[in-house]
Amino acid sequence: MVTIIKVPCSSANIGPGFDVIGLALNIYLQVRFTVNSKPSSTYPLNCRITYEGVGSETVPLNAEHNLITRTAVYVLRCHGIRAFPAETDVHVINPIPLGRGLGSSGAAIVAGVNLANEVGKLGLSKARMLDYCLMEERHPDNVAAALYGGFVGTYLNELAPEDTARLEIPLSEVLPEPAGGVDTGLRPPEPPHNIGHFKKFKWASEIKCICIIPNFEVSTAKAREVLPTEYSRKDIVFNMQRLALLTTALGESPPDPGMIYRAMQDKLHQPYRKTLIPGLTEILQSVTPQSHPGLLGICLSGAGPTILALATHNFETIADYLIEEFKKQNITCDWRLLQPAEEGTTVTCTSTPSSLAQESLTYASAGVSIDAGNALVKRIKSAVATTKRAGADAEIGGFGGMLDLKDAGYTESPILVGAIDGIGTKVKIAFEMGKHDTVGIDLVAMNVNDLVVQGAEPLMFLDYYACSKLDVESAAAFVAGVADGCRQARCALVGGETAEMPGLYREGEYDAGGAAVGAIKRGQVVLPDTKSMVEGDVLLGLASNGPHSNGFSLIRKIIERAGLSYHDDAPWSKGQSVGSSLLTPTKIYVQPLLPAIKKGLIKGMAHITGGGLLENIPRMLPDHLAANVDARSWPVPDVFKWLKAEGKIENLEFARAWNTGLGMVLVVESSKYSETITVLEEAGETVYAIGTLTKRSGEGCTINNISVWN
Ligand SMILES: Nc1ncnc2c1ncn2[C@@H]1O[C@H](COP(=O)(O)OP(=O)(O)O)[C@@H](O)[C@H]1O
Ligand SMILES: N[C@@H](CCOP(=O)(O)O)C(=O)O
To answer: Would the pLDDT of 310 be above 70?
Structure first.
């Protein structure tokens, strides 16, 4: 049996709530343990620790020194158990940055108390566990949020003098060096009952947390040493007034930026901590809801140095700006877009086959949440409805999606065309950036662009979203992107599938695919019309949006080899991060192309995806004709120039891996090419005459003057 304890990180104080309020956020410490019955163990306290993630080089793996296991031993000893059962295997997976004000120590302590509760079968209530946590971390904000989840307010009892004395007794009395004393064999002092109290507040779902995480640590202990021991009545009243309003204001939809921004001011801790965090005051004052729409408020996260900016939109712009402000102090930062972890600490057991036979199982216990699936359907209904078109109402919930061809304008039976595709590894950049609302556009684009090259009008779309554990927020953002793509292509999103498959995908990741159906009116030419193509026909190229949705395995390799993070500035695009530039959605060419198709201006089209110009152009040509393309006739976008140079990509490989700046290539009769350009330019396209068709003697596509790419 493997038991998994999952504890969220937390942001404490939220401005005026020093030592009072905490917000659990969705980065989780995981402690997995098994107890393997053995007569004895050679590990200290019978516990073997392995560790992966943040701090793997610094966090001690000796159970007497490690914060998680030391905390667990304290709780066990309070219950007369001197050590872990022989032999306990503890594996820690920690993605929480240490010493940055995101409650890593609070999470470790909560995990330790839960670990003791599980291995010792102590049956402690959460309230009692909070008492134990508070023996180690004396401020309740982080531990209460991590234990209970969500946005919490806390207070500690005023203790009797003897209890205060006991509270002061540090862990060192019960644990051997270096924690302090020798193992006396005595029971350690137990915490008084019900020391900590908490209340959960509402949190408006549109408020997200931008965490700007500087590349240096500030220990919470040090950040408490710089605080005064006494405050003026004026400063205390200042904070209390703001705190009282803030806790309600953050639960109201829509949130009031003016109120929240002012209510997040503080006079009790931030002004004193500026000595530890260069530029803190200036950075906190550098953004307002007026200067940065979407921003609600900004403060130090916990004891810092992380900055917490609450916002409803424009997350990346706000983050980029704050990162630039830190740069002025020569501090580099990482950033994360986080959201509240409502559930708090969870403990799950993965049973071995023999114990599995004993339990009453549920679908949820196997990791599939029907409730989350239902919540997602509710969330996406309105976005899906915006894709309604003639013939389809785009209402989800049925077993199959429908479209009435007659209502869609097809009175005679049309030719139906289907396409199916995925996004590829571009999704991995969405995971890195925590931005899920554009890859759905890529998914639609990859399909509908394939339909339109046949001359078909896209009519309906269905998407497939598969993940390990369904995160309603990111799945809803993904579907909003799909709906956006469908609106651009004017096709109805008539259905889809969300598959939650624990164990199949990595946690926090997903994959997506989709299929589109379109139609060609009876009598209209099906493209490519290879019979009509002749030598001298002109090739037109339509500008792309950079790398569309293929070639990303190579792109990711180049970025990795260049040592860049996706949050770093894009070397090829000022003011944009690597990730946001690469997430630019694939261009959807449907609406600009359909009028030109209807006018009979186009003989054939090639959607430039994997295989690039070299492989895709010949797909639309007859065997006797070849494309002669001049590499000087269109500009290669800066992103491609940088990728080519950084990856030392040879010219022919370049023309095969990516679209080089052209997302679509058209064959047009030479007499119609200027009219076609006019029609396409009027529809907003950038068009280049890139070559002509000639008699084929060898390759189906030759790129001349390719050396301009050197
Ligand atoms: N998962 C963990 N395992 C062991 N020790 C940890 C873990 N997480 C945090 N700690 C300890 O807590 C310290 C950070 O605590 P603290 O200064 O309170 O910062 P934070 O703001 O991250 O809570 C780390 O340097 C480390 O010693
Ligand atoms: N209220 C405490 C919160 C410390 O949080 P951490 O995440 O920095 O440990 C304080 O401000 O000292």
So the answer is: yes
Indicate the pairing of strand 457-467 with strand 492-500. Answer: parallel
Exposure string for 27-56, b = 16+ CB within 10 A, e = fewer: bbbbbbbebeeeeebebbbbbbbebeebbe
Task: Name the phi and psi angles at 644, rounded to 5.
Answer: -65, -45
Three-point CA angle 339, 341, 346, nearest 5°: 155
Strand, helix or coil for residue 80: coil
Measuring CA to CA, which residue among 74, 322, 67 is closest to residue 211?
322
Q: Is the CB of 141 under 6 A from ligand 2?
A: yes
Query: Residue 483 has which token pair?
Result: 């709906």
DSSP state of 330: T
Task: Let me know whether 614 and 503 are in one domain.
Answer: no
Distance 102 CA to ligand 2 centre (A): 8
- Together in a domain, 189 and 60: yes
* ipTM computed for the complex: 0.93
Question: 227 pLDDT band (50/70/90 cuts)?
Answer: very high
Residues 91, 102: one domain? yes
Q: Which atom of ligand 2 is nearest to the CA of 100?
A: 8
Pairing of strands 687-695, 625-630: antiparallel
- Total number of domains constituting the chain: 4
Q: What is the DSSP string of 114-146?
A: HHHHHHTT----HHHHHHHHHHHS--HHHHHHH
For a pocket test of ligand 2, which of 10, 220, 299, 307 has the largest count of ligand atoms closer than 8 A to its C-beta? 220
Q: Residue 259: its pLDDT value, please?
A: 98
Last residue of a domain, one of 456, 489, 520: 520
